[in-house]
## 1
Amino acid sequence: MIPPKPPSRPDRVSLWRYMQLFRQDILSAQPARLYRAWMAEFRTPFFRSYLMNQPELVKTVLKDRPDDFPKSDRVGEGLRPLLGNSVFLTNGEVWKRQRRIIDPAFEGGRLRETFPAMWDASEAAAARLPEGLVEIEEQTSHAAADVIFRTLFSIPIEDALASAVFHEFRTYQRSQPILNLAAFVPLPRWMPRLFRRETRASAARIRGLIGQLVDRRAEDIAAGAAPDDLATKIMTTRDPVTGATFTPEEMVDQVAIFFLAGHETSASALAWALYLMALYPEWQEKVAAEAQALVACDFAVMSKLPVTRDVFRETLRLYPPVPMMVREATCPERFRDRDVRRGSQLVLSPWHLHRHARLWDRPDDFDPGRWQTENGRRCGRDAYIPFSAGARVCTGAGFAMVEGPLILARLLRDVVVSPVEGRVPVPVAHLTVRARDGIWLNLAKR
Ligand code: HEM
């Protein structure tokens, strides 16, 4: 038995059919050969794109020469009304300055300071869990959003402003279903700019609410009464080069991306992890046994969850929340004996790389034990990029690798999850990898 994998399309389809498939879901719009190919070319009337699966090529683009392969503008088009000039969308000097201010807040030692807020969120998530038939993505979204509010602003999701932001984000996501696809779909450049009115209005409301959080915090900082959380750390950090801090407007941009990048992704990973635990009860029992160590809020407890961590890593391999990323070639290149023109779109696909048939042993199997094998270790270094890699690596990677295993273990300490007959989730790529009709599980108290 292998865990759910979307069907691939036939090798050859018309451009029109490809566009239709794409609109439905980018994962099932791709041919099966991408799980074996080192590089593939897509020609469209408007531009060319290349999918890169060869570890050396991925390394060139992400790690060795990131400045030559900036983020493609096309990716940002669907997100700009919400994210403004956030670190997720910028390039060049602006991006470098933003990372200089943000990165220190997420450094290893600081994670320890953030841990109590995560712990409280994990307790709250466990207390909220219902019994019986449950759609688990809803639960994990709630939990991951709570983690962000608690770590960033020291408020729980029940706070009136926090809960307003959370609900407004849901409206936004519903009104903006083809996010991110502009980079691959052969549409003229102006098309994705025609945002629906509702999407724009919703983005404006979210930014207004976040603005209130930021203003409130700026006042607390000025009064010397601010809690020492991520928002305070970021808002009081001066750029070591220029000495400037973020303006309130820039901070709103960053908070919007922390919320979006930090909650959608973790929610997706946690939901798939719980589904996999239902499919593989022997692993679920191992996680539940480790979870007995979670008795008091102490960062050291994380070192007692090695199996849970491997389970979470394996989940990120099979269901990478960000399935594909896009970069743009700023100069002509020659890759694998092919001329890649300037302006070409380069697609890096954790989804395909993580299941590559020429790299991984039993690529579609769920086996957390693989991380202790020679093949697993090698592929972990060369062919595993759930958080991307290089200079633009996810700022929240370390954060997510604490949050994910902690919440997974905490929930399984209290409940046993089992699959629901007839409800096999079908992975589809929305903003992150989700299940077409949600992920349904049976929950029973342990
Ligand atoms: C399992 C959880 C997560 C996954 C799988 C994930 C994955 C990723 C990936 C793949 C990227 C690169 C996207 C690209 O280059 O196109 C990224 C960027 C980013 N992520 Fe995460 N992320 C996670 C959690 C978080 C959290 C918790 C935060 C913050 C609290 C966060 C903040 C960011 C930011 C700010 C960026 C932009 C970095 C830049 O472009 O310089 N992420 N994430």
## 2
Amino acid sequence: MTETLVPLDEALDRYDPVMGLEVHVELNTATKMFCGCSTTFGAPPNTQVCPVCLALPGALPVVNEKAVESAIRIGLALNCEIAELSRFARKNYFYPDMPKNFQTSQYDEPIAFDGYLDVEVDGETYRIEVERAHMEEDTGKATHVGGSTGRIHGADHSLIDYNRAGIPLIEIVTRTIEVPGDKAAAVARAYVSTLRDLVGGLGVSDVRMDQGSLRADVNLSLKPKGSDVLGTRSETKNVNSFRSVERAVKFEISRHAGILDAGGSVLQETRHFHEDTGTTSSGREKSDADDYRYFPEPDLAPVAPSREWVEELRTTLPEPPAARRARLQADWGFSDLDMRDTVGAGALELVVATIEAGTTPQAAKKWWLGELARRANETGVDLDALPITPQVVAQIQGLIDAGRVNDKLARQVFDGVLAGEGTPDEVVAGRGLEVVSDEGALGAAVDQAIADNPDVAQKIRDGKVAAAGALIGAVMKQMRGQADAARVRELVLEKLG
Ligand SMILES: [Zn+2]
């Protein structure tokens, strides 16, 4: 089926987007939601299972207290009310990676509800209302073998690993988000990114989008400008980077507009997002009337957290994001624009960690928002998915501070580290990048440059110090960039002063 895509700005001239975001956060508890099985990632298939998470007849679940605690802390951090009585419910449907044929989730009695999260885009704050945050369990993982797409259609056979079945999840659901159309994609991205930082700060999840411990579903519909009638929505599932959240919103706006312009009607369905093309494709049809026959889980007692416990947990919350940002900005001496750029790039936590590893705030910002942002953009990944850690960035800055490499050579050290050539020291040694600190060699190079450029040398002798740049350039060229430019400048001025 060919789709007519309407350019984004044209689509936004005629339609307003309405969004809803659902984010699943995998908790980092040691054991599963309803049994004592380990949650360690990467174990051989089906080695972390028991009668409860395999749903063998007669097995009885028990709620993981730590997971409830994490859920409450997430709810409080999102400014939610915490339910005095919250219940689990069975969501009935069949899927082979879900051995019970129902998912233990929460329905009309979630643990947390009616909250909000403020996000910042281009210096404006947008309040995203959170309808609910509820507890549920993950499914197992199916691997479809033999087809070209990795999906079940066309596969020869499927393998199922139940290690993941029963891992605790928190699903955070927003109310409808209506912001100016040209901000919608950026607001969606900022929401997921701010939520990631918030939940990460609580220490309750690894919040790695690239590893699936945080994943977003993007609901989107369009309504004609001036209309109050909501359009039919699509639901793009399991988007796994900030960048992809933004692209999915933009693509769906263009796609919906194409359908509506042609007088068609948008199909209510789930969609898959494709990282390589930035497009979505049809998943399965879904109607609001999908009946999961929810009913209260009879094997689990309601969760009734005491108010004392809730208040105790409230005291464990980290500093609220806005207050923390203001404090960091003051500590770092960043301008409003510096801070906005840092947050907007999704680099806040990376900059924090780089500073903690020993660099100055300016240096940390320079690398993450400059060189590394460019690399991330080129390769189409989020900053934190680059194969480099804040500690390594700090090490490279350390090489500069020690005078072992200059800025230009440092960029080559970044190249080497990102290409998997080892630690910064190994890259410097392997590529022979260390600056020449041999004064004799430097002096000779300066003498040579002076001899080659007598006119320039005379200008400097006459007091035109600004002309030194030409000689420094000549020396750097002769040393193939491997010299400390500041030291070269000193030598030039000494010799001609
Ligand atoms: Zn188990």
